[in-house]
Write a structure and sequence with these properties.
The structure is a homodimer.
Chain A lengths: L20 H8 L3 E5 L2 E4 L1 H20 L3 E2 L5 E3 H7 L1 H4 L6 E3 L5 E4 L4 H8 L11 E10 L14 E11 L2 H21 L5 E4 L9 E8 L5 E5 L6 E3 L21 E3 L6 H8 L7 E8 L2 E8 L6 H8 L4 E3 L2 H7 L16 E6 L8 E4 L5 E6 L11 E3 L18 E15 L1 H5 L3 E3 L5 E3 L1 E8 H11 L1 E2 L2 E2 L10 E5 L4 H16 L4 E4 L5 H11 L3 E5 L1 H6 L1 E6 L4 E6 L3 H26 L2
Parallel strand pairs in A: 3-7, 15-17, 17-20, 27-28, 27-29
Antiparallel strand pairs in A: 1-2, 4-6, 5-6, 7-8, 8-24, 9-10, 10-21, 11-12, 11-21, 13-19, 14-15, 14-16, 18-19, 21-24, 22-23, 25-26, 29-30, 30-31
Helix pairs in contact in A: 1-11, 2-6, 2-11, 6-15, 12-15
Chain lengths: 586, 586
């Protein structure tokens, strides 16, 4: 492709609304343009990258035996009502009515649609397992779209759904998808960590997110430096650190703590550690009142609590509700008036015999020497892990102190179990002729987000450096020649490259060399070939490796010679990536 | 691909709601499934075909120098208001509100979006011409979706938009697109006729539709059997046939025609030809009252009238409106009470001096001997062509009698002119540094509709026969073998075909040969290779050409020998198509 016939609308300045590198660089390199909040247009260069990413996803999914479909974006409300998600999905779902007043939504995910479609096609255990997928546009009405295409309202997603006779078969496909995902991401140059994750409103028994470590990540993951463990912090089990020990507070039993309501305020006021205090969190969960006790330095992990309670809505109790139950806001302690209407949960980190400081159930007073065991019987309360993990907590596998990192989620796999197969009554006859409800898995990848994430990992002060597998063009040929004879020489090289199947962008624009160099470094073609003065005078070419910025000047005899040299260099880039893919898929 | 690992949900029975061949066959061959009214899911086999069609469109567009983009489906109402189409598009546009109550629509077409996107990228005449396109999902809330994917509510469209400094440049790209379109359609085996068309609410000066002649077509086209002329009947000029002559009705001047209101009733009652009567059509057009006179055997062409009046809404006048104007419903003749509030239009076919029969402006009476010239002065009325062409009308080019055919529209190209460039103020500096408003073209292809149209053209009583370029697989290998040794033999042939780059579906399902043969003929793979008894016993293979259903039994020595034979046959199919493409693009 000649740049003069192409569109390369690069910009020097970062766009005002961009705060992360990928967003800035996608705009500056002319890959995308914003059309409205959370809506982006892909320009030719950007679309080439996106299509290559799609290509990698497709070929690995096909290799894993999945079958590609394409389903409508518009999905009728009926099927969402059948699964019970029409109301649950809330405001993130774009809804609309057609001219006959029938309600639909723009599919944010397609469990329902695929269930309805696949159901009549699977009748016998012989038809299973089946893994179906599509690469198509999805919609989510994000409350706050941001980071460019990382959190947008319209995006391309690869979503796959597998159907099985039993859990064993589901696990097999789940493990295959796990490997496939690692291969897919490695294939586009992304290093990912699969982490234990929460299933959210998808239902199901197990799920893993594929995380790319990045300071701009919206998720926090815990990683064990010695074993293979990694988890989303929302899901990381917190276990007691056997090495930790603490000194109880020594002082008067009833303490006047005027206007000291928060743990931090009280600890500072009493000059003690926060862990010596008891934190009480009063909540409303789907109509039930819940009171949770945690150690003072811990935050409540709402996901853990929600999963334990099996509730949909969780919110703090209001002052009036607390009053009705006899709870004193800011000063709740284990001696609160017990009630059948109030469920008590004691975080598993709490030492039942340690003497904590807690609220005195009286305004402006705390009490010390509070032992949980004196207030509750074992079977009266739930003792479960509801605290958020923090850096240094013991690894749930091996006990080593965990580290915490920010991560971007690029993929997510779920064991859905029978949630949807039951809702849509997807049964097959097993090998004994008995009708059996199928079980399901689902597997998603955010395609556009992958593109942005690669940029987050592959950028420097000059711009982007694309992994060879998804670069918009492999080679950028920069030429500076004015007279027809020189141009003809360069054109013959360009043609030789194209004929050899090398994806080359020849920057033949009527611009100075500095401008062309900067553009090629900003956009990030893996290899730059300069045919400048050295070429015209001495027959030398300069080859730049964009990632390392190492430049080499090589003589060459014929066009074939040059093509061969370039092919070797490109081949080497592919080989490196291929090794990473093989490594990742183990 | 092995059929046992694929999805081939064929059916014997036609679906109940399908009335046309393509709809029936797409369902029966397991290419698509209906998810709701006008919404279809593509199954793996169907999607392969769709992607191949997209591939042909993409490669020809790229060859013609167009640049591929991808724009959001959600388009904000603001840009539609800027062009004035937010209200005009009516109920065909799916509209919705986001969580912040901002209005959007699901783009049915993208003139507005591309204008906003391209505007800042073109500053100088040097940036022009530019032709941008996308292949993406579009939405139209059809009042009556039908014929399967031919008229659906969600579909894939290739839409392109070109921007130019002047009309000359626009015309050049328009002609290129015209050729490109013919190549595209020929490339998928479709024989198309470009016909003069009406621009509808797109605005602009010229447009052509690419029609495939088919009895299920929703459009009527007129074709001249001697010259190159062809037109949409909505746009076909009607000129006086110099050979036609007629005899005026002889009888009493005022005729009692009790309860005879329609032209047919009156003509039958008076035993005269309909062409001897004057037809009066009373209408309301954007607030203006219009009375049109036509010869009795002609229908009003509303598009012609709309274009002449430049109006948006046209409807018959109501009885009360007619009464106010002094018009007698069913009996209007040229002697009606003239009024400044009533615009009169005389169809250009009318002979001003012929003695017609017309309504007598009195209930139950007609008058004969009515000469238009006695009632109107030349400058008092509009004399224009507003009648619908009929078979036998003279060709507007050469005068030969036109034939009429039904056609399916698969593509449409428009010279838009400055309608959108003005609305979005898209200007560039010309070579003299003067700011100049650009002019535009736009070019659309219905991708899914192409798929259905190919089936309409390529089917027989057994099913579909796909042109080689868009067949889901080129070769279907049917094997009937049970013992491992035979299966291994067949597998080695299958692998040799795959290794040679031949797209082959090996029907290794545990089904009888008759079932497999029927499936392969229904789905329509161009070539079927049978490795049955003849192969296992005598080393013979049977090759079937699906289109002609000619079967040939050939001996072969090695796998390479077989691969070579097949490659020749496939090559021949491609060559034939290629010739048609070259021919079409001239």
């Amino acid at each position: 492709m000649k740049a003069s016939a192409y569109l390369i609308p690069t910009a020097k300045e970062d766009p005002q609304d961009a705060v992360v590198a990928s967003h800035k660089l996608m705009m500056r390199a002319g890959l995308v343009r914003k059309s409205a909040a959370g809506l982006y247009s892909y320009l030719p260069l950007g679309l080439r990258i996106l299509k290559k990413i799609e290509g990698i996803v497709r070929s690995e999914m096909d290799l894993a035996g999945a079958l590609e479909f394409q389903l409508p974006i518009l999905t009728p409300s009926e099927i969402w009502k059948e699964s019970g998600r029409w109301d649950k999905m809330g405001k993130e779902m774009f809804r609309l009515k057609d001219r006959h007043d029938n309600e639909s939504c723009l599919g944010p995910t397609h469990e329902e649609s695929f269930c309805v479609l696949v159901k009549p096609m699977v009748r016998s255990y012989k038809d299973l397992p089946i893994n179906v997928y599509q690469i198509h546009t999805k919609f989510r009405d994000e409350i706050r779209p941001r980071f460019g295409v990382i959190r947008s309202r319209e995006f391309t997603m690869k979503d796959a759904y597998s159907f099985h006779l039993d859990d064993e078969s589901l696990d097999k496909t789940y493990q295959t998808m796990r490997k496939t995902y690692r291969r897919i991401f490695a294939g586009m140059g992304l290093s990912t960590i699969p982490v234990q994750a929460d299933s959210g409103n998808m239902g199901g028994s197990a799920s893993e997110e594929f995380m790319v470590v990045s300071p701009i990540g919206e998720e926090t993951l815990t990683i064990c430096p010695s074993c293979q463990y990694s988890g989303n912090i929302e899901k990381t089990p917190v276990i007691l650190n056997p090495k930790s020990s603490k000194q109880p507070f020594v002082g008067s039993e009833k303490i006047h703590t005027p206007a000291k309501k928060t743990i931090t305020e009280v600890a500072e006021f009493l000059k003690t550690k926060e862990e010596n205090l008891l934190k009480a969190v009063a909540l409303w969960a789907d109509g039930t009142y819940v009171l949770v006790f945690l150690e003072g330095d811990r935050e409540l992990n709402e996901n853990k609590l929600k999963n334990h309670l099996g509730c949909n809505e969780l919110r703090p109790m209001g002052p009036k509700e607390m009053e009705t139950l006899g709870l004193v806001p800011g000063f709740i302690g284990p001696g609160f008036p017990k009630s059948v209407n109030l469920k008590v949960i004691i975080d598993s980190l709490i030492d039942w015999n340690f003497a904590y400081i807690s609220g005195a159930n009286e305004v402006d007073y705390h009490t010390s020497g509070i032992q949980i065991s004196k207030f509750f019987k074992d079977d009266e309360v739930s003792k479960i892990d509801v605290s958020q993990a923090i850096e240094g907590d013991p690894c749930p596998n091996c006990g080593t102190g965990l580290t915490a990192e920010k991560g971007i989620e690029v993929g997510h796999i779920f064991k859905l179990g029978q949630k949807y197969s039951k809702a849509f009554d997807i049964t097959v006859l097993n090998d004994k002729g008995k009708s059996t409800t199928t079980t399901m898995g689902c597997y998603g990848i955010g395609v556009n987000r992958c593109m942005a994430t690669v940029i987050e990992q592959c950028n420097d002060d000059k711009g982007i450096y694309w992994p060879v597998s998804i670069a918009p063009f492999t080679v950028c040929l920069v030429s500076i020649a004015k007279n027809p004879e020189d141009i003809a020489k360069i054109e013959s090289i360009y043609k030789a490259l194209v004929a050899a199947g090398i994806e080359v962008l020849w920057d033949d624009r009527d611009l100075g060399p500095g401008f062309k160099f900067k553009d090629s470094e900003l956009i990030g073609f893996p290899i730059r070939l300069t045919l400048g003065k050295g070429f015209l005078e001495k027959g030398e070419i300069t080859i730049l490796d964009r990632k390392s910025m190492v430049e080499e000047t090589v003589p060459f005899t014929t066009n074939e010679d040059l093509v061969g040299k370039l092919q070797n260099q490109i081949q080497a880039l592919h080989e490196t990536l291929k090794k990473e893919v093989e490594q990742a898929g183990i």
